[in-house]
Design brief:
Blueprint: E1 17-19, H1 23-32, E2 36-41, E3 44-49, E4 52-57, H2 62-65, E5 69-73, H3 77-86, H4 89-93, E6 97-102, E7 106-112, E8 118-124
Parallel strand pairs: 1-4, 5-8
Antiparallel strand pairs: 2-3, 3-4, 6-7, 7-8
Protein name: Glyoxalase
Organism: Flavobacterium hercynium
Length: about 130
């Protein structure tokens, strides 16, 4: 029987790339969410919170964007949802915010960004 070789990960971070229909609106949206922006190029930024980050690019493909989902684990989903409500993102950006749902595996609330990327803010039941 052949033994498979496995890669040993000593990863330091993972950073997804997401696109933006309107780059300036998306930049403002993510700054409002509390991410720190580092501009890398006129059409490319990295957004950070603590040791976590993602890249935002001035590129839009409807099929790709509307099928992109990101899960961000947070300490307290209900608290986080209430913080999102205070930001008035639905009025300011016309985005969709869905209240917290509690399931067997944990809890999560949902937020679509201005381009259509679906964010899951959740916590796993340990």
């Amino acid at each position: 029987m052949e033994e498979s070789i496995k890669v040993k990960h000593k990863a330091l971070s993972i950073r997804p790339f997401i696109g933006a229909k309107d780059f300036e609106v998306s930049r403002s949206f993510y700054r409002d969410l509390g991410f720190e922006e580092v501009v890398l190029d006129a059409k490319f930024s990295v957004f950070k919170t603590g040791d976590l980050a993602f890249y935002l690019q001035d590129y839009y493909d409807k099929n790709w964007i509307e099928n992109t989902m990101i899960f961000l684990e947070v300490e307290d989903v209900d608290y986080y949802y209430n913080q999102l409500l205070v930001l008035n993102l639905t009025e300011k950006y016309g985005v969709k915010l869905t209240p917290t749902v509690h399931l067997d595996w944990g809890s999560e609330c949902f937020l679509h960004d201005p381009s259509g990327v679906l964010w899951h803010f959740g916590k796993f039941t340990k």
